[in-house]
Write a structure and sequence with these properties.
Elements lengths: L1 E8 L2 H19 L4 E5 L4 H7 L5 H10 L2 E6 L9 H13 L4 E7 L17 E7 L9 E4 L7 E4 L5 H17 L4 E6 L7 H13 L6 E6 H10 L6 E4 L1 H15 L6 E5 L5 E5 L16 H13 L3 H16 L13 H14 L2
Parallel strand pairs: 1-2, 1-3, 3-12, 5-10, 8-9, 8-10
Antiparallel strand pairs: 4-5, 4-11, 6-7, 11-12
Helix pairs in contact: 1-9, 1-10, 1-11, 5-6, 7-8, 9-10, 10-11
The chain binds nicotinamide-adenine-dinucleotide (NAD), 3-isopropylmalic acid (IPM) and manganese (II) ion.
Amino acid sequence: MKKIAVIPGDGIGTEVIREALKVIEATQAKNPMDIDLVEMDYGAEKYLKTKITMPEEQYDDFKKNFSAILMGAFGDPRVPGNEHAKDILLGTRFKLDLYVNFRPVKLLDERFCPLKNKTPKDVNFTVFRENTEGVYVGVGGIFKKNTPDEIAIQEEINTRKGVERIIRYAFEFTQKNNLKKIAMADKSNAMQYGHNLWYRCFFEVAKEYPNIQSKHFYIDAMAMMMIREPESFEVIVTNNLFGDIITDIGAQLQGGMGLAASGNINPDGVSMFEPVHGSAPDIAGKNLANPMAAILTAEMMLRHLGFTINADMIDRAARIAIQKNKLTKELGGNLGTKECGDFICEVIRNGN
Ligand code: NAD
Ligand code: IPM
Ligand code: MN
């Protein structure tokens, strides 16, 4: 029995995860999986009521008792400092050592791409974002707060171990998938210590993979190239912050935040899956959110757990929804969140 923790979180997180769960259950009816979905209510609401973000024991419970975690999104205008999200989302990434942030950028239909004349074969690459270090570690402080002399320090941490393991993971993925090209982005022209480590480490590891074409970019140029020639990328590896930014660009190349799925992987332990998007307070509670990113994230999770048949069912149904324009409004359809989820479930149930 595989236990899966489900944490819908805030805003549209709850709306899209509801659809993802419906879809998982629809596949269960066709091909039962030995899983137990355990819902947990961590998020802004709980935090505001109880001050609990995520208790320390919860991380151990995940490690000991769970095979995967499915999350929605965290962020609420009533918690402007985002304290709860730091613990729940970043806490999970750090404490479970989910060092691989796997974010595929795959255009499923030409009509979704904002670029002229780009087809699914042009936008098809994978970003590996380092997920446990960088500026996200929260090292730093504020001195003389709210005075004219205020000093704010936010350190970026890059360790040899942390940089090397994500670079190696990206090379291994490239090799296993018979891909030919890997690109690494840093800002070593301006950040001469931390990003020099990235630069050296990348080319050292590259020597072990002579059949893979290894290319270095400065992150600004990579952002430009993602728009000019997305077809030139197969695999990208970069640090935590740059990976965050370029995967929003990547999401838009696929058609927007409503389509981008992601995995936070610990290759030796429990992993967490979540859509790339946030809680979208601007559309929350209106049945407007596209549930596809969450549904494709559920597919990614099932595939990771070895439930290939069920994952394939979701993949097929999502493609049919796209073909038939059974989509939410921002993609040019006329369905709400719930109706889009219903359609995918119906395809899974009826097979058409
Ligand atoms: P966002 O991703 O929530 O929204 C950006 C824009 O994309 C908005 O216009 C939104 O309406 C749209 N959008 C996002 N998801 C969509 C979907 N499924 N369907 C249709 N449109 C969608 O980013 P933001 O506005 O910068 O952040 C809102 C909150 O979410 C903040 O508190 C932020 O910190 C948090 N956040 C959380 C996560 C996470 O938990 N993984 C990720 C990103 C942002
Ligand atoms: C993401 C989000 C998070 C990040 C935020 C909410 C801290 O933007 O998962 O992409 O920056 O990692
Ligand atoms: Mn982000």
